[in-house]
Amino acid sequence: MFQINENYLKLPGSYLFSTIGKKVKEYANAHKDKEIIRLGIGDVTLPLAPVVIQALHSAVDEMGKAETFKGYAPELGYEFLRRAIVDHDYKKRGAAIEIDEVFISDGAKSDSGNIGDIFGLENKVAVCDPVYPVYIDSNAMSGRTGNYVEAAGKWDKVIYMPCTAETNFAPELPKETPDMIYLCFPNNPTGSTITKPELQKWVDYALKVGAVIIYDAAYEAYISEDDVPHTIYECKGAEACAIELRSFSKNAGFTGTRLGFTVVPKALTCNGVSLNSLWARRHGTKFNGAPYIIQKAGAAIYTEEGQKQTKEQVAYYMNNAKVIYNGLKAAGYSVSGGVNAPYIWLKTPDKMTSWEFFDFLLEKANVVGTPGSGFGPSGEGYFRLTAFGSYENTKKAMERIQSI
Amino acid sequence: MFQINENYLKLPGSYLFSTIGKKVKEYANAHKDKEIIRLGIGDVTLPLAPVVIQALHSAVDEMGKAETFKGYAPELGYEFLRRAIVDHDYKKRGAAIEIDEVFISDGAKSDSGNIGDIFGLENKVAVCDPVYPVYIDSNAMSGRTGNYVEAAGKWDKVIYMPCTAETNFAPELPKETPDMIYLCFPNNPTGSTITKPELQKWVDYALKVGAVIIYDAAYEAYISEDDVPHTIYECKGAEACAIELRSFSKNAGFTGTRLGFTVVPKALTCNGVSLNSLWARRHGTKFNGAPYIIQKAGAAIYTEEGQKQTKEQVAYYMNNAKVIYNGLKAAGYSVSGGVNAPYIWLKTPDKMTSWEFFDFLLEKANVVGTPGSGFGPSGEGYFRLTAFGSYENTKKAMERIQSI
After folding, report:
1. Max CA-CA distance within chain A?
2. CB-CB neighbors (< 8 A) of A71 in chain B
3. pTM of the complete model beyond 0.95
4. Residue environment code for A82-114, b if the CB has 16+ CB neighbours within 10 A, otherwise e
5. Contact criterion met (CB below 8 Å) for B233 and B203
6. To 10 degrees, what angle do helices A292-300 and A50-63 make?
7. Cα dist. B144→A2, A18, B8, B159 in Å?
């Protein structure tokens, strides 16, 4: 009799967004006169930039003619896109990444879920707390996290690195030595980030203890301050200890268009084995490339016009972030994030739990956000609002919160 | 110190298509006057059908307007596509598959590589020999195949089911009991298939021994004979023992457009756990949906016009298959496949090895095919030609082979 992967049975239910959806639906049904504003989920709302639309149309036309039709893509991705990435995202930042170190994919979620494939199951994993759930869940599925302890809301083999007001929302070097360290800066969900000297400390630490850093830079485009690194490869030695995940979802609105990439430097080795070659083998065996037309759309973002148009989108969302940040401050809340990220992280007032505040905000202001406890135990007592709504709704939401 | 997944180190080099590429390049450089015809790789050449192009343009326009822009897709895929699939591919065939049993993906290669995630590592795997390499390699990566024995060209924990002239290119029920059985009909690489009563025997066997069948039906559109099943769910009881993988690559030319789906029936359980829920969890954690515009393109294939246009493409390739089949027969070869599949499988003449025949064909006819031994030890002494070239080249290739 065949057996299933028993690790799946250890996963607690993934109820966060379904519970939110259910609660909002119930409230809406009971209060049909109320207009609800959703600032909960991290999905974009602006349409794709004109330069992207144009590239898509043009690539679609190519697919309709025998002379320009494209079949299977090169396994790593088309060179026109990998070269644009290397030139723009790395060379300009002083990072010596080469095009055969860049792997095009269908998005950072797939890559962050799949990257564990090339690592041993005995590796000890360290994550920030609160955290993007995919890092934990994908490791739980492969059996790397031990057992889930319901009372603590934690896995017993995972090293949790609290990121709270006490740590300035940044992780501290863990006491127990990890093998795989997941870092995400600018951070989802807290919206905070760290400076280049602070990130360098993590690189130095990883090199010292022989850990690999899985660095999620999906929100890189939202960085507004000078001393914040755009890529971990700005740090010395990172090419020997770090893998970087990047996404087109938030910098260009590709959440429903799907494109991302992962950088695995050739200098990153374990007992002489190059992780670049392992990921190439994984990529070539369990993946068959991102669509040609989507890769053309991705390349359009790197043109002069593409940079201008996508920067305008980011600026629009970041203006929303400012409205939320200032609005909450004016209403007396303790607020962080929102300066280098589209997420605003607030301390719930009057010692409310995250879920109590969710209900409070829904009832009193008809505004939907995300309870911090949904991202991990150290998220309890916090709450996330996103800047991805429209300006009009964002402004209205703040007026309502201020008048509670 | 972090460790890698050591199973990757057991994989033999994946040299088949790179060796072919190298040999062809060398020959072409040495004989610049020769016009080489490539009938080796299974990639399509006809452009996307007009109805698909139209759907793509229209969906791109939707993505460019705020009112119709689409962010994250539903995790299982858009209902418009899943409903079209259920109605057309299953209901019409008398298979009671429901829309929440269909999972849209970026292609059958990803799904066939990733499906192992939800199964235990101790499961015993059975594959046809010769075989599509992804089934084996993905299981090797997770540690399910034991060690690779170079001399035999086999993994020591895998059950190989020879498909040769002696077995009429169909597998026989294995002597050792497997837990996971990979079947692909119509078959890649042999181009052969089995009848519905023959497939029913496999379903009955799987139900009896408690095995799960991973059924790859990527070439379903090429079936021309009446008694050949288009889906395994035409067989009684299959919903309790089989997962089906489907692709848009070969029926609609989506090799570079990327779309596929997997059916995991809710009736398929292991000790009371539904595999549908496990795959839903995997899909929701390590994947984030196929692009909206590509899902719209997929749905267009199911319209009346879409069916007509894609059937014309399949007919074009199947005419090539006939040209190859008849051409080889006329030249005195032992040939199979090509009737319900775009692949023609021939016995090498004069006891040549697959690679010897590769060199022979390249030199004498300037035609490129794929050595059967590249697909497994029982592929030795066989050779694959594909019907995906142009009619003109296919015809010319046969004239050359006949005049050797």
Report:
1. 67
2. 43-45, 253, 255-256
3. yes
4. bebbbeebbeeeebebebebbbbbbbbbbbbbb
5. no
6. 150
7. 13, 35, 12, 11
Bridge partners of B386? B343
Contact indicator for B341, B92 with CB cutoff of 8 Å: no
Quick one: which H or E segment has residue B348? none
Listed by number, the residues of chain B in 167-186 with a beta carbon closer than 8 Å to a beta carbon of chain A are 179-180
Q: How far apart are CA A311 and CA A317, in angstroms?
A: 10
Task: Decide: helix, strand or coil at residue A18.
Answer: helix
The whole-angstrom distance between A349's CA and the closest CA on chain B is 32
Instruction: Give the nearest chain B residue to A49 (CA atoms).
Output: B64
Quick one: pLDDT band at residue A285, thresholds 50, 70, 90? very high
**Can you say whether residue A243 is alpha, beta or left, with left for phi > 0 and alpha for psi between -120 and 50 degrees?**
beta
Q: How confident is the model at residue B183 (pLDDT cuts 50, 70, 90)?
A: very high
Tokens 């239910």, residue located: A13
Q: Which of A4, A258, A286 sits opposite B110 (nearest CB)?
A: A286
**Mutate which: B254, B273, B286, vs A, most A CBs within 10 A:** B286
Residues in chain B: 404
Contact partners, residue A32, CB within 8 Å, separation at least 6 = none
- Residues of chain B with Cβ-Cβ distance to A262 below 8 Å are none
CB contact A208 to B (< 8 Å): no
Q: What angle do CA A24, B65, A326 make, to 5 degrees?
A: 55
**Residue A119 gets which letter from DSSP?**
B
Tell me the one-letter amino acid at B94: G
Return the H-helix or E-strand segment holding B404: none
Q: Do B270 and A57 count as a contact with CB atoms less than 8 A apart? A: no
Q: Using one digit for the tens of pLDDT, what is the confidence trace for B27-56?
A: 999 999 999 999 998 899 999 999 999 999
Size of interface A-B (CB pairs under 8 A): 242
Over the range A311-340, which residues count as b (16 or more CB within 10 Å of their CB) and which as e? Answer: eebbeebbebbebbbebbeebebebbbbbb
- In chain A, residues with a C-beta closer than 8 Å to the C-beta of B121 are 5
pLDDT of residue B285: 94
B205 in contact with A, Cβ within 8 Å: no
CA distance A392 to A374: 27
Q: Quick one: pLDDT band at residue A14, thresholds 50, 70, 90?
A: confident
Residue B13: pLDDT over 90: no
Contact A179, A158 (CB under 8 A): no
Whether B257 contacts chain A with CB within 8 A: yes
Q: B99: pLDDT confidence band, cut at 50, 70 and 90? A: very high
Task: With CA atoms as reference, report the closest residue to A307 among A319, A318, A298.
Answer: A298
Rounded distance between C-alpha atoms, residue A373 and residue A152, angstroms: 12
Q: Where are the alpha helices (DSSP H) in A267-365?
A: 275-286, 292-300, 304-330, 354-365
A 10 A CB-CB count for B167 gives: 14
